[in-house]
């Protein structure tokens, strides 16, 4: 696809969204196409207050992600979604992680499976993107970070070569690592996200909005995460004093009940 076609398509996407839902496209908005995978399960856990760390098994070379929450006994362990291990069964790893997370949260695995992918991509209550583009510029991890195998497989299935040509692919011993976004001419990371564009009506938006990475879709994890990242999406939404905060409980709770 030429630059011109690329730009035309971008304008079409923006016009369609502005005319349809009545709300402009922003880097942190909207639902995505991802079903349940280790990456979406991880985002779900983060949105449920879990913290995570990574640890490398020196014998096997597998990097494990370990998720825990202070009020829950036990942990959820799974191979880091950012690495695609040739010898591992990713489906079996997901199943095991799902079972562990469900047991910790007191849910049936199928109930957790039904809600995790949706919650993972759902912004906290009160989120209203201002199209400032700050999240795309202030967090280098968004455009120089790791991508999951599922994201790359999805772009491949759609033949999205304009995106794939900017994906770094590193074949390492026993696994493949995918990263965003590398200049195919130099092989180096871009200094800023190459997809961040000025919107025709003002503000900044994502040039691959409908196909943007999971990391961008799931931003922000919490209101605090947004504010820490200089995101203005909650400026209109007051915090209820006296411990009765409304942060992140509304829409996610509704999804669980549904
Ligand atoms: S791909 Fe780039 S422009 Fe698009 S949402 Fe992510 S960081 Fe922002
Ligand atoms: S920083 Fe927040 S308000 Fe600005 S574009 Fe990103 S999500 Fe929207």
Plain-language structure description:
With 258 residues, the protein is an alpha+beta fold. It folds into 2 domains: 6-31 and 124-145 and 180-228, no CATH class; 38-122. It has helices spanning 3-20, 38-47, 90-105, 109-121, 134-138, 140-144, 149-157, 161-164, 214-217, 223-228, 250-257, and strands at residues 51-56, 63-68, 76-79, 83-85, 146-147, 168-172, 175-179, 196-198, 204-206. Strands 4, 5, 6 and 7 form a 4-stranded antiparallel β-sheet that branches. Strands 1-2-3 form a 3-stranded antiparallel β-sheet. A hairpin with a 6-residue loop joins strand 1 and strand 2. Helix 2 (38-47) crosses helix 4 (109-121) and helix 3 crosses helix 4. One iron/sulfur cluster (SF4) is lined by residues 27, 136, 142-143, 193, 195-196, 206, 208, 212-213, 216.
Q: What is the count of DSSP helices, taking H or I runs of 4+ residues?
A: 11
- Helical content (DSSP H or I, runs of 4+): 25-40%
The chain-level mean pLDDT equals 82
Percent in strands: 5-15%
Sequence stretches where pLDDT stays below 50 over 5 or more residues: 1-32, 243-258
């Amino acid at each position: 696809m030429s630059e011109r076609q690329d730009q035309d398509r971008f304008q079409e996407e923006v016009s369609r969204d502005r005319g349809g839902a009545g709300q402009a496209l922003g880097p942190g908005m909207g639902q995505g196409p991802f079903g349940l995978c280790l990456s979406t399960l991880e985002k779900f856990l983060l949105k449920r207050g879990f913290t995570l760390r990574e640890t490398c098994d020196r014998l096997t070379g597998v990097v494990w992600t370990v998720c825990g929450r202070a009020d829950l006994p036990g942990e959820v362990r799974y191979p880091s979604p950012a690495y695609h291990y040739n010898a591992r069964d990713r489906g079996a790893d997901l199943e095991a992680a799902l079972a562990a997370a469900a047991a910790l949260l007191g849910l049936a695995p199928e109930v957790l499976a039904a809600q995790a992918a949706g919650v993972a991509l759902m912004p906290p209550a009160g989120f209203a993107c201002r199209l400032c583009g700050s999240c795309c510029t202030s967090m280098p991890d968004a455009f120089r970070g790791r991508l999951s195998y599922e994201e790359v497989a999805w772009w491949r299935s759609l033949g999205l070569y304009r995106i794939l040509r900017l994906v770094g692919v590193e074949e390492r011993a026993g696994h493949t690592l995918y990263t965003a976004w590398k200049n195919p001419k130099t092989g180096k990371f871009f200094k800023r996200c190459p997809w961040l564009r000025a919107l025709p009506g003002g503000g900044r938006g994502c040039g691959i909005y409908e196909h943007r990475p999971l990391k961008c879709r799931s931003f922000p994890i919490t209101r605090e995460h947004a504010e820490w990242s200089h995101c203005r999406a909650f400026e209109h939404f007051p915090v209820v004093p006296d411990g009765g905060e409304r942060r992140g409980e509304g829409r996610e709770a509704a999804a669980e009940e549904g």
